[in-house]
Structure formats: structure tokens, C-alpha cells
Amino acid sequence: MRILITNDDGINAPGLEALFDIATELAGRQGEVWTVAPAFEQSGVAHCISYVHPTLIAEMGPRRFAAEGTPADCVLAAIGDVMKDALPDLVLSGVNRGNNSGENVMYSGTIGGAMEAALQGLPAIALSQYMGQRTAGLDDPFEAARVHGPRLIRQLLEHGDWTSDADFRLFYNINFPPCDAAGVKGTRVAPQGRRHGVRFGVEPYHAPNGRRFLWVMGGSQTAPATPDSDVDANMRDYISVTPMRPDLTCHASLGGLSRALEEG
What we know:
- About 30% of the residues lie in helices and about 25% in strands.
- The protein is an alpha/beta fold.
- Strands 3-4-2-1-5-6-7-11-8 form a nine-stranded mixed β-sheet, with helices on both faces.
- Strand 9 (about 200-205) and strand 10 form a beta hairpin.
């Protein structure tokens, strides 16, 4: 198996090292793991692409490349240049330092990398590690992802919906709970949820020279969330798996809106 890995924390991030170990185990002795990851941290860029300027790419080692761009740029670079002669069988994005469940999905560059792979017709999975007090004291805060990731990805490859004839191909979002590997209670297939009362905002800051800046700030990651959602599962020490697609249409609203606007 040929596996492409990327992330949004940057090519030197420890989560990418964990993902390399996961991918190496999955690929097997006859397989290949290719890395095309951002040269610098790209957290919060979502599915952004560098459309108005070129992307510098540099070879850092065998099958290892750094691109001065977003995770989506990295996937495009791999498909259109680095791996163009033999495309990957699977794209893995992560392991993100911090969860990408709930509303975080909409901002995540980790999700953006997996989404771009899906748009390109490739099987893709995003992986993120929830952080908290119980992971802070671990020698390896990515332990849950590193231990449980290979098994879960194999199960998804066997049982997931990987059909490519639909308008928008599915990809999968995996979030590991904020505990060690032994503390994981199991896996829950869950929809994307929402933390109650949590919004992104800005915090004003004055620099020593008097200039005014704004820091973008997130909300509590332990706030109560939609029952039986990805966030809820993670907070109860379950791995969450959420099938996703790059389609923001609210299909439930189409019929009523059509009747109101087209038949009136």
C-alpha cells in the first residue's frame, strides 16, 4: 500500500511522527509512506488553497517533502507533482494536536487535507488527538492514537463506504479521546456535534510599541455538547468516527424552500 501523510501542525510536529508510525504499520514491509506536509504550522486554515501565489516545495529526505502552503496545498502537490506517477492508495491527515470534533471541524486544516484528497477521488481519513489534563502528563500524548489508530483504520478500509461514483466522495474523521491508550473504552460512530455556548472570538492586545492587535481565541473544549455526538463520545473516553463529505447543502431544507420560492 502507498500512503500519503500530511497535517496542519507542520512537518516537524510530533503528531506527524505518530502518524508516520501508524502509516508504516499499515503499509507493511512492501509498502511506501510518503510525507508532504506544511513547512510551518497551518492550524485553522480549513480547506484553504494558495490560489494567488505559488507554493515552494523542498525535498527533506527520501519520500519526505515540505511545502510552504496549507494541508490542501500539500495534497495537491503530492497528487500533481511528488507522486504523480503513482498516486497514493490512501491519504491520512494528522495526527492533529487537539480535537477536530464538533464546531472545530469547520476550521480544521487537518480536515481540509482529507477533504481535498476526497475531492481528488482518493480514500482519506483525518485523525486528531483530544488533549487534556490526562494527556498532559503522558510521555507520549498521542499514545491513544498511536495504539488504536492502525486497527481502526484497517476496520474502516474493510467496512467503510469507499465508493467513488458519487458526486462527493466520503472521507472519515477520527478523534481519539483525552486519555491514555488503556483508558479508551471503545469506538462510537457519531455525527458531528456542537459544544453548547462555545464560539470563536477575539482578544485585544496592545504591543509594547502601542499598536493594537487581536488574538483569535477558542472556547472551552470540555463544554457540554450534543448528546451522542463526536464531542460527547470523546468526552466519555470513546474514539469517534464520523463519515463526512465536502457537501454543505442542508438537504432537509431543500423541499420546503423549493415549494416556497418556486411554486409561490
